[in-house]
Amino acid sequence: MIAQFVSQHLPALQVVVPLIAAPVCVLLRRPTLSWLFALIVTWICFAMSIALLIRLESAGTIVYEMGGWPAPWGIEYRIGMTSAIVLVIVSGIGSVVMPYAKASVAAEIDPARHYLFYTCYLLCLCGLLGVVATGDAFNLFVFLEISSLSSYVLIGLGRDRRALTAAFQYLVMGTIGATSIVIGIGLLYLVTGSLNMADIAARLPEPGTNRTVLVAFAFLGLGAALKLALFPLHVWLPAAYTHAPSAVTAFLAATATKVGVYILLRFIFTVFGATFAFTTMPLDAMLLALAVAAMFVASAIAIFQNNVKRMLAYSSVAQIGYMVLGIGIATQAGVAAGLIHLFNHALMKGGLFMAIGCVFLRTGSVRLESMSGIARTMPWTMAAFVLGGLSLIGVPLTVGFISKLYLIRASFEAGLWPFGVLVVLSSLLAVAYIWRVVETAYFREPTAEAARATEAPLSMLLPTWVLIGACVYFGIDAELTVDTAFRAAAALMQANP
To answer: How confident is the model over 130-153, as a mean pLDDT?
Structure first.
């Protein structure tokens, strides 16, 4: 009976479970109890997202009507292949970060605030999952705000006072992005009289015949670009990732911007349609230009950073450029390549930020000079960083190689071969900034802090290696990720608003 109920309401439970669980952490109060409860909830969410992905194999697109009210009068959850992929990424990263968080949070956040951390963590998880699952445009905005508001608190919870400034900067930029999105949604409602995204797509006038639709598209594109930190609208990201607690950085870096990319995909392909976005509006040319700028400018800035978290933050801006490049190619192969990198980057960057969090736990710093010789006392942690770095560069047998291979292939198939060459050239910049860390950690004499350091605890090391191990596994056997991404891309390209 319970199993039947869970199966029937799985799309809603995916969002409702963390939403209800969040305030329970406030009632539990005690750090260990709050952590254990949040750990169970995140793994339940991960199991549900896997179940939804498996159900899609036989059922196709899953449509769930909240309260039994059919769309467009009621709120509808609509989960297709793209939605399922992002749900698995968000819930999977959320569940892997939680075991890691126990020791990391204990070291970086005041004990009196631990329950607030787990409460906001579950709220953020709920918001991100809700954005992906919902088929209602205004509901998407509400869940986006839930995830954003909780993210601001998570970033500011650490002992580093600079985190408060970073959180405020993120709040200002996030508010601009959210306002742009809600204005775009309001304009679409003005034209169509509906908030259901599938219904909006069916009611939109012919492409290019209505100026209000053009303005709505511009506002929604701007809002999504801010949320996914597309260059040059990335200014909130480096400070937020640098000064946030390590567990927060690992979680947000692997999930939040991916959901931003999903929002862009959802509106382009399933609401406005590829014809409108890439023919009526020259979005492809704009995305390609911004993607290349992100790949080179952000990578060049990363080379000169002495704070490794900040270095990886700028690297994230560059990697977002690769995802947007795939979308900008505007073919099924290009979109699939972008989705492949969306999944792969979550593994890479989550693992890298976890490894750096381990270093911070033992040395109290993530500046390059403090990491001199650290590989001698933290060999497993730095081995994880090296493998994650190789994946970021795109070395064969890692997921980064798979991403770049399919991006290059898509570029050549679309007749845009110069962009394939630029993917290779930009990878050389990644070699430069990853090598700076490797050279410092392995080939310099240890500092006093590094010499006294010991290996990270198993509770942090194992989750780190789960993600880094996945980088290698899916780099060797990429059939599952590639096949799923191509099916999702085919569904997006065939969407006919």
So the answer is: 89
- For residue 314, give Cα distances in angstroms to 289, 348, 407: 18, 14, 21
Q: What is the DSSP letter of 196?
A: B
**How far, CA to CA in Å, does 392 sit from each of 34, 240, 305, 384, 396?**
34, 21, 17, 12, 11
Average the pLDDT over 358-380 and give the result.
86
pLDDT of residue 452: 80
List of residues 6+ apart from 210 with CB closer than 8 A: 191, 204
Residue 496 burial by CB count (10 A; 0-12/13-18/19+): exposed, middle or buried?
Answer: exposed
Distance CA 327, CA 362 (A): 41
How long is the chain? 497
Check the CA dihedral 286-260-263-52 and report its sign. Answer: positive
Alpha-carbon 409 to chain mean position: 24
Alpha carbons 73 and 203: distance in angstroms, whole number: 15
Q: Are 208 and 277 in contact (CB under 8 A)?
A: no
Alpha helix positions (H), 157-282: 162-192, 197-203, 211-227, 236-243, 246-265, 274-275
From residue 59, alpha-carbon distances to 14, 42, 52, 56, 66 in Å are 18, 25, 10, 5, 19
